[in-house]
Amino acid sequence: MSGAMTERHMLGEDEAAPLAGLAARVRALTEAAVLTGVGADEARAVADEIAALTERLRAVRRDAPPFLVTDGHRMDRQGGNPVTGVLNPIAPPVDLDVTADGIVRAEFTLSDVYEGPPSYVHGGMSAMVLDQALGMAAAQTGVGGMTATLELRYRRPTPLGVPLTVEAKASRVEGRKIYASGTIAGPDGRVTVEATAMFVTPQHFLVHER
Amino acid sequence: MSGAMTERHMLGEDEAAPLAGLAARVRALTEAAVLTGVGADEARAVADEIAALTERLRAVRRDAPPFLVTDGHRMDRQGGNPVTGVLNPIAPPVDLDVTADGIVRAEFTLSDVYEGPPSYVHGGMSAMVLDQALGMAAAQTGVGGMTATLELRYRRPTPLGVPLTVEAKASRVEGRKIYASGTIAGPDGRVTVEATAMFVTPQHFLVHER
Hints:
Two copies of one chain form a homodimer.
Chain A: E1 10-11, H1 13-35, H2 40-58, E2 67-68, E3 97-98, E4 104-108, H3 123-139, E5 146-154, E6 164-174, E7 177-185, E8 191-200, H4 203-209
Parallel strand pairs in A: 1-2
Antiparallel strand pairs in A: 3-4, 4-6, 5-8, 6-7, 7-8
């Protein structure tokens, strides 16, 4: 298990690339596993081979997911982030960009792995993407913080398998509180989910960063 | 991509068991991939083998994740659900139980795969677990529905790698609107995240179920 005090491995681009490739392959395997219709014997045979590969990866085990060396901001460098992390197979990953005026934005597509209601994105997955985007927008105002409140309004179902857009922006800062809002929209541009959030900068963030 | 109109494969226990075993192996592989410190050559070699296994699973591909034949309610049977689904490698999975008085409850542990702030659960992941638990609590009042609003209050960080408890209960029903609330608590019993939600039963749910 990771710890706040755990020293993180910092990976340069050359070190990160093969691990990102590995994560991409596990991501594709995950989708194949959710949709496969192979018989019981083949499922068991593949499962056994996966177990052997897992042991090979465990031969050298880190205490916590590594960070990436980037010239960007703190959230970008979290390679294992479950929304944006290129090293995490459960992340779509959502590749969040920041514009000059502090708007956080990404286009992304969610596979059947993220299904909630039949043919639609799980409401919790939309919450997860928005929490991450709003958190990154909050971080544009300074050091960022941890989610204190998150409010979501689901206006219509969010479809799977088509290009979606997430956008977020910080609206104001009051001491250690940072407010942000954002949306997910479908390919027709219509908003499917709206979010507002308040983030609080922990005292130790301020100590570390200054 | 799945479609609302896609005929779902319904898996009995014998058919589901090997696929659940496969998903469990992919889940372990995912955690190993996030934490591995193997070198570039070994990471690439394992990645190639994973790609070959993915092709084997794709040899027979379903249009959408299958459902499970159970004697329970509708959410239980969604084998591919990203929170509770035993067939989905990205699901922890959280094994939600329902008590006689309609309280939905589970104990679960989240690995480093779900890390947000260093050593803590990603705020969006807590939202995802709560959306699922509150949705299942709402379903106990009748046919359930889709999330319309979800409000989360993060009271303290939620730790990784230790037993957590999620609890949810429907509070009232007004026409097609169902209100529910719930919490996640740490091993010391202290609440880390609180949630309230409103679910709306779509008209076609009522038509289908009656």
